[in-house]
Amino acid sequence: MASLLHSLLPYHPFKALYVFLVALSISLRAPFWFLYLIPRFLRQHPSWTLRQSFMIKLFSVASYHATLVRQHPHWSLLPGAEKDRYERIPPSQNRDIYRGVLLQDAEIQPAEVGGTWYPTVYNPTDAHRKAVILHLHGGAFVVGDGRKSDLGHGAALLTSHTDSYVFGLQYRISSNPGCRFPAALQDAVTAYDSLLSRGIPASSIILSGDSAGANLVIALLRYITDHPDVLPKPKAALLWCPWVDPAACLHPYACSSNRNARTDFLQDAFGEWGVRAYAPAPVVDAKMPYISPVDHPISCKGVPMWVQFGESEILADSIVRFAEGMRGVEGNEVEVHEDKGAPHDIFLLGSLLGFQDMTEKMAGAMGEWVRGKMGG
What is the pTM of this model? Predict the structure, then answer.
């Protein structure tokens, strides 16, 4: 009976009724959560403020129920609120850039995508902004769109601390039909090639991604490494809380059994939804290096990598394992930044969850690192 109810929740009128009941339930319980967390010894982490503890609890519950109803953004390539900062990108006319793993599924072909420029549309005559950051948003491959409502906070961190333009790619998410792997990677290749085609040198492009988006950055770097005659290497890569082991989420208690389950908001259901949509068996193997790179380091000589994670997040151990593996490859340069007491992805959610000060310090350290790599 429970499985039947869960299968009906993504559809109306069941979805609308469920959302109403959940919203009512949360509004009634939230005051009690707040009061319960007032004593510091009852909070999830001893260093957290009351606001941080409350918001982690609230966001955890809300995201769990959003997962059950499969809540995700409506796919549209219309400009919307972003207006002229939104740009549509057709597949590359040079079809030769799509090779190997990108063509392993005949049903998944390169398609038109879009993205949003921050803080303004790219201007090649702007001497102040020395680099372009191609950012791939997080969301377990099933939510997010790189637009202002999604990436606004993270894009502001990047633009203000690096003096760069940011292009937030709206890649195909797997909660939509026909958008499983390798659709998102095809879109990342399309976007990177588009930046190069408009005359931006690879030495001025930095790849960036948070959570699942960081996974895509790693996949894009692997693709560039596997096909060195197709695309040049970027200047650097920024990985924010990279989701390096999606296959682990096929285990039903991957998050709830983690040692940091109490100090993070990630849910078993969300990770499982993401990996099953992105890499549905038996069509796609979630353990393949392009999807779960945790134990599959790549040679990124000439592409310095910044890896950030939260000490208290569920992905912490897998990120450390990945970073150590990358450091073990001759020629790789990997800078690891650990934020003490931080949950998952404060790059994206820091202001919402009450970690603004920590997020600013993190971004400041990243900005200094980027300026060092850009030579200024």
Answer: 0.95
